[in-house]
Q: What sequence folds into this?
């Protein structure tokens, strides 16, 4: 996680939140505490030192907070005024509400009990803030499927999965060794060594139908053979300026020109995408793919006309 | 910087601990850190009030003495200051942890993390074992995400440029109600002020920065509002019959209402909303899909194929 930038305000907020946390976690180690608050230990000690100077007006030792952390373990006393955790801000409530809605969507069907508990939380949180409960998040993959994949990535264990490739329009069983999960353009992908393809492949996880643990282990040999996957450079000429083309070919609005030179990992994808644009996009190169498109469109057209 | 922080903490403590309103002069006299000429102290105090307000700490202003029009007084009410979620179970703390975890690396990561600190401070053990192993995840790194959530919570208007289908940026002013995510897209719903109607926008189609208006509490969000209700207003009322090659066109197959086995091909029927999206999908599958019915859809496909042949021939 990125470290929050330091502003006097964010530090003041953290100090206010440290007190109630310490109150319920007396004797916590500096390391665990710095982890919980996502700050360095140096920063944490500076925070605690500042807190130590604060207290009720009067500011005699009797009124100041009594903090001790020299031993590496933190205790706090005489901090009753700030002992309650602060109310959640609207932004914090929004983050939790969206997260909870996503969880409800990810729960297995037989866990109605948890759904009820989550809905109860949503109701409580919506009452606290001035935000509506109408924040919705729908999971594009079942939560359990994602957990199986994530565990395999962490443990570097094999996965057996049924995958639908939209480029090649096939559904097949793949045995893979997961490497990492990553996000691109809002979709999540699994990068994995594919035993079936003998290469590293990227799988969009909402296209993974099922996944289960696999005992296959002889992946090392494949890794050695791996060469970088070549990208194809292609050029399209746009015959219409529209949003569909921009989004399909991932062009930034400023870079939308009549002729576009870009790259793709899959010739199949280029061919299908140009077909989908039905005349709004013309493939200029590679010439062979251009010829393929013309031939395929002609043959399909003939079949329609013969009927 | 440290002095300023100390002063903010001391002011919070003083205003929380007091049972009655404190006047400014009492605050300046008793709270450590207010120094300099009277005017400088005034300015300091005004800034501190704003700062605490930005941290979500509301300072209440009241009359020191209700009978006489006296100097205004200040205090922080503990019930407004502190977190109160009523009875919460260990399982619920675990659910909230998972909800916060879903934001890791995404737009509201920091907010979710801070919320979690506060929840942990309640001292209720999180019962992770009560949950099945699920790992939901939210993605959004949209730079204006916080701007939108802030506007929703403060009921402020926002203005932005939105790309229409012809790629022309149109100015929109919106009273935002809610945000939602589905199929890798984020949606923003609200009242479009110029159109005087409810509208839903895709975040990735917003062009440039979102500008937030100054005024707060300009509108009410309808009770039970759901972004998806407004996205799915059109029910698929048109039906088509198409022929698809065995084992092919999974995307179309998955929406089939009926499937008839024709040997090398299957004949399926399906409902659709948008003809252009359907054509897009049919052409994506090239020679593996043929439209049988209705006639006008067939004609449209034929005309598009002619165009493809014409420009690529």
A:
């Amino acid at each position: 996680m990125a470290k929050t930038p330091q502003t006097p305000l964010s530090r003041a907020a953290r100090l206010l939140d440290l007190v109630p946390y310490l109150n319920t976690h007396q004797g916590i180690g500096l390391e665990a505490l710095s982890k919980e608050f996502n700050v360095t230990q140096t920063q944490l000690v500076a925070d605690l030192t500042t807190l130590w100077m604060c207290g009720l007006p009067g500011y005699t030792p009797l009124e100041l907070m009594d903090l001790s952390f020299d031993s590496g373990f933190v205790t706090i006393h005489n901090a009753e005024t700030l002992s309650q955790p602060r109310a959640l801000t609207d932004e914090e409530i929004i983050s939790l509400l969206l997260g909870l809605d996503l969880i409800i969507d990810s729960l297995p069907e037989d866990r109605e009990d948890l759904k009820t508990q989550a809905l109860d939380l949503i109701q409580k949180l919506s009452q606290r803030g001035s935000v509506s409960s109408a924040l919705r998040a729908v999971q594009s993959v079942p939560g359990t499927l994602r957990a199986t994949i994530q565990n395999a990535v962490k443990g570097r264990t094999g996965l057996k999965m049924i995958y639908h490739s939209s480029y090649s329009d096939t559904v097949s069983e793949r045995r893979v060794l997961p490497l990492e999960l990553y996000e691109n353009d809002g979709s999540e992908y699994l990068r994995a060594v594919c035993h079936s393809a003998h290469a590293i492949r990227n799988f969009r996880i909402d296209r993974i139908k099922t996944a289960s643990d696999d005992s296959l282990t002889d992946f090392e040999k494949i890794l050695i053979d791996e060469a970088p996957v070549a990208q194809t450079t292609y050029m399209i000429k746009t015959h219409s300026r529209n949003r569909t083309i921009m989004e399909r070919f991932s062009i930034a609005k400023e870079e939308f020109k009549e002729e576009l030179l870009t790259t793709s990992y899959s010739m199949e994808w280029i061919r299908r995408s140009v077909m989908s644009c039905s005349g709004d996009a013309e493939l200029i190169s590679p010439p062979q793919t251009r010829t393929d498109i013309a031939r395929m469109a002609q043959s399909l057209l003939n079949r329609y006309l013969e009927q | 910087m440290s002095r300023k922080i100390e002063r903010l903490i001391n002011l919070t403590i003083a205003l929380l601990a007091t049972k009655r309103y404190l006047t400014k002069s009492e605050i300046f006299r008793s709270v450590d850190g207010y120094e300099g000429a009277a005017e400088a102290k005034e300015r300091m105090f005004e800034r501190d009030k704003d700062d605490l307000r930005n941290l979500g700490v509301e300072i209440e202003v009241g009359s020191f003495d209700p009978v006489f029009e006296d100097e205004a007084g200040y205090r922080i009410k503990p019930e407004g200051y502190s977190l109160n979620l009523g009875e919460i179970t260990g399982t619920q703390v675990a659910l909230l942890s998972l909800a916060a975890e879903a934001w890791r690396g995404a737009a509201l990561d920091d907010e979710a993390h801070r919320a979690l600190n506060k929840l942990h401070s309640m001292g209720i053990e999180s019962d992770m074992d009560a949950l099945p192993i699920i790992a939901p995840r939210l993605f959004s790194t949209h730079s204006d995400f916080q701007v939108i959530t802030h506007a929703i919570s403060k009921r402020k208007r926002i203005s932005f440029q939105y790309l229409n289908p012809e790629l022309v940026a149109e100015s929109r002013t919106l009273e935002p109600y809610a945000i939602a995510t589905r199929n890798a897209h984020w949606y923003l719903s609200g009242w479009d002020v110029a159109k005087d109607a409810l509208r839903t926008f895709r975040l990735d189609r917003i062009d440039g920065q979102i500008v937030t208006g100054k005024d707060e509490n300009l509108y009410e969000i309808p009770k039970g509002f759901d972004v998806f209700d407004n996205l799915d207003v059109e029910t698929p009322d048109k039906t088509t019959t198409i022929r698809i090659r065995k084992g092919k066109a999974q995307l179309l197959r998955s929406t089939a209402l009926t499937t008839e086995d024709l040997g090398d091909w299957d004949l399926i029927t399906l409902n659709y909303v948008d003809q252009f999206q359907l054509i897009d999908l049919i052409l994506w599958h090239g020679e593996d899909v043929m439209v049988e019915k209705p006639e006008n859809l067939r004609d449209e496909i034929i005309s598009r194929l002619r165009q493809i042949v014409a420009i690529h021939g």
Summary: Chain B has four domains: 2-81, 90-130, 145-231, 238-312. Residues 295-312 of chain B form the longest helix (18 residues).
